[in-house]
Amino acid sequence: MKKTGILIEMEKKRVKDTTLGMITLAARADTDLYALVLDGVDDPACEILAQYGITTVVDLGLSSAPEIRLNPAARADAVTQAAQKLQLDVIFGLSSADGKDIIPRVAALLDVPLVMDCLDVDLEKNIARTSQYSGKVLADIQLTGDVVIFGIRPNAVQPVPSPAQAKKIKMASDSAALPGSALLSWDDGDGAQAGLAEADIIIAGGRGLKNSDNFSLIFDCAKKMHAAVGASRVAVDEGWVPYAFQVGQTGEKVSPQVYIACGISGSIQHFAGMKTARMIIAVNKDENAAIMANCDYHVQGDLFEILPELIRQL
Amino acid sequence: MQIYVCVKHVPDSAANIHILDGIRIDEKVAFLLNPYDEHAVTEAAALKKKVQDSEIIAVCLGKPDAQKTIRSAMAMGADRGILVETDEACDSMTTARALHAAIVQDGSADIIFTGKESIDSEGMQTQFRIGALFSFPVVTNAASLDISSETAVVTCELSGGRTRSFELALPCVVGAGRGLNTPGYPTFPDVVKARKKPIKTVSMDSLSITPAAGFAKTVSLTPLVQKRHPKKITGTPADQAKEIIRILRQEAKVLA
Ligand SMILES: Cc1cc2nc3c(=O)[nH]c(=O)nc-3n(C[C@H](O)[C@H](O)[C@H](O)COP(=O)(O)OP(=O)(O)OC[C@H]3O[C@@H](n4cnc5c(N)ncnc54)[C@H](O)[C@@H]3O)c2cc1C
Asked: Residues B218-244: pLDDT tens digits?
């Protein structure tokens, strides 16, 4: 049977829901599923992985020293060694902030083909579906090779349990010297934006907010509905929120359950980052704004009247 | 320093994309220098100002028309260009091999810049493959760069407001992100000067590349059409807010 290795992302020792969704996608094909875990895995986490179809949990036991553990080159090296030792046929990882700096390194080290940001994968034919040309085109790309790698867009697939029995093995990688790349320092910010790509609800603001003080309306609303906050490039370029908030072609690409766009016109470049949201709700005073024709619900009105009402009622 | 910048000729992000035969795009649209590569060229030009006797070489794999993108890079500071000519649509494994071979044939790189991704195929991987072929360290989404005699200190942005700073041995590969600098519009004299700078054209065949064992092949392209049917939420702001909350609870089921 084919072997699929899945690079597991965790947060506070819990397996991320987006990772479980990726396992669900991999479990559609009849393969042995290996969970590749870099940051340690306890019994509850192993059980969760088994519930979603993992048959072998591989603890790669990466050094806990942050200079190693946070260095994408070291992480990619450990995954690459595991892929070789386990003779994996397929590797899955999230096309997340961390994944974008690890998965392509693994593909380059193994010299095997890769598609990033997959919305779906047909594992019988190794065909991945991804978006191209600023989200204007869906491309089906077929990979051929001894090993093939897919980077999966977070939230592309909803997790569905598929219980299996999982055994746990340890596989220490030779912490090969990382030629020429030393991690000097790291800054995890205030962590506020870490969840943007993986959030269920995103509420985003654009030029319509007019200034950074008004952006607190978006933050207050987000807090009440446990949503993440996004922004258009204009809001970022004006300095109202940092770049980490930008959604779009040159920002984050997101697929939340619901995307609420407030005072955002819906440019092609903004849509490139959020058009795969399951539901789009637009709040805009201009009935002819592009986003009004390209959403599921539109609220024509003044966001300065609607957002305070939302905050009050939530 | 020999500074190489890999640049790609891509359709304008605002262009309407039409698909032909379900497999390729109609190329009768405006093409330009990939936006992230503008940051790469801008950084190369800043580096050249700091390090005496530097030369910037823009390297591009593409059709003959991609000369225009090399000219754009030249107007922004590249001294000369290399166009590896091909009519094929190459996957990133072949692209990296071609760029690597063209650089090796041309000289000895002290640093190689790329963009963090191209806005057409959005592959996000060529910089890593070039690095692996040279055995050079690679960083991506660079937001600041400081070069000393033998090392580069680079700060990279992970999304989510997180950053990582690395010290890389030179030569290295740097994938430019949007935070790295602000590309300026070339002046008219810059554009005129760029017309006189040399471009060397090499054919893909002449590079005698050893193909990779695996490959990626596009099997179909379809327009990503929106199947959304907008419904209007009406009433007073209070009514509208109430209806949004109802939708979040009952339809999207994202609120308790
Ligand atoms: C290469 C390139 C890359 C780009 N990448 C990105 C990207 O990643 N992300 C991105 O977002 N953009 C990107 N852009 C920019 C993009 O083209 C648009 O300029 C930008 O998205 C517009 O932002 P906006 O919708 O906030 O502003 P606008 O287009 O100005 O829209 C503001 C909207 O707010 C509405 N409004 C104003 N006041 C109110 C009010 N009181 N109540 C309700 N509604 C109100 C208006 O009706 C209008 O529709 C890129 C552009 C280029 C060329």
From this structure: 999 999 877 799 999 999 999 999 999
Asked if A162 and A20 sit in the same domain, the reply is yes
Give the E-state strand segments of A104-147 in sequence order.
114-122, 127-132, 137-144
Which residue's CA is minimally distant from atom 43 of ligand 1?
A284
Q: Please report whether residue A181 resides in a domain.
A: no
- With contact defined as beta carbons under 8 Å apart, do B142 and B165 qualify? no
Banded model confidence at residue A177, pLDDT cuts 50, 70, 90: low
CATH number at residue A25: 3.40.50.620
Residues B239-250 as b/e (b if ≥16 CB within 10 A, e otherwise) read: ebbbbbbebbee
d(CA A225, CA A43): 32
> Per DSSP, what are the bridge partners of residue A183?
B166
Based on the fold, state whether residues A12 and A156 are members of the same structural domain: yes
Rounded CA-CA distance A95/A14 in Å is 19
Q: How many domains does chain A contain in total?
A: 2
Going along chain B from its start, the domains and CATH numbers come out as 2-207 (3.40.50.620), 226-256 (no CATH)
- Predicted complex ipTM: 0.94
Flag whether A60 is in a domain.
yes
Number of H helices, E strands in chain B: 6, 15
Does ligand 1 have an atom closer than 6 angstroms to the CB of A218?
Answer: no
**Cβ contact (<8 Å) for A193 and B166?**
no
Domain hosting residue A216, numbered range: 196-313
Domain ends where: A154, A170, A186? A170
Answer whether A73 touches B (CB < 8 Å): yes
Cα of A260 vs centre of ligand 1, distance in Å, is 14
Name the residue facing A192 among B161, B219, B224 (closest C-beta).
Answer: B161
Chosen domain end from A118, A135, A170:
A170
On whether both A141 and A261 belong to a single domain, the answer is no
pTM > 0.95: no
Q: ∠ CA B76-B81-B87 to the nearest 5 degrees?
A: 115
Which of B10, B162, B181, B219 to mutate to test binding with chain A, by most A CBs within 10 Å of its CB?
B162
Cβ pair A137:B25 closer than 8 A: yes
pLDDT tens across A240-256, in order?
998 889 999 888 889 99
Which has the minimum average pLDDT: A185-194, A225-234, A273-282, B106-115? A185-194
From chain B, the residues in CB contact with A301 under 8 A are 237, 240
pLDDT in tens, A221-235: 999 999 999 999 999
